[in-house]
Design a protein that fits this description.
Distance between the termini: 40 Å
Order of helices and strands: HHHEEEEHE
Number of strands: 5
CATH topology of the largest domain: Double Stranded RNA Binding Domain
Strand content: 15-25%
CATH architecture of the largest domain: 2-Layer Sandwich
Structural class: alpha+beta
Length: 125
């Protein structure tokens, strides 16, 4: 897993100068590495971030929320409802297995449910 941070260009230049010309008797090799990073063109957000942004925008429109409904025999139905009173329900995604709120599986299944709502037409409940 990689984490991305944003650092203003002038701050990165300052750090490079400190590493090269600071109180060290020899320039730090990290300065050259950071300088090569600074020369690279800025990268566009990756596809997952774009998909998540699209999902978030969809969920924020029309009072939508993800519902996890427990069914018999340890099965779950995960679906999106829309409207203040949840008067529109989108197609459900079925899941059976261990479920832990906030886990990677939980997030992935909820993403699938949102994707199903994006592509499907919701009907009245």
């Amino acid at each position: 897993m990689s984490e991305h941070i944003s650092v203003p260009k002038h701050e990165l230049e300052r750090i490079i100068n400190v590493l090269r010309y600071g109180a060290h008797p020899h320039p730090s090799p990290h300065a050259d590495y950071l300088a090569t990073l600074l020369k690279q063109p800025a990268q566009a957000p990756d596809e997952l971030e774009q998909c998540d942004t699209k999902r978030l925008n969809f969920m924020l429109q029309g009072h939508r929320k993800v519902i996890v409904e427990r069914l018999p025999h340890d099965n779950l139905a995960i679906y999106v409802v829309a409207g203040f009173m949840g008067d529109r329900r989108y197609p459900a995604v079925r899941y059976s297995g261990d479920w832990e709120q906030g886990s990677a599986v939980d997030l992935e299944i909820k993403r699938e449910a949102i994707d199903a709502a994006l592509t499907g037409e919701g009907g009245a409940v």
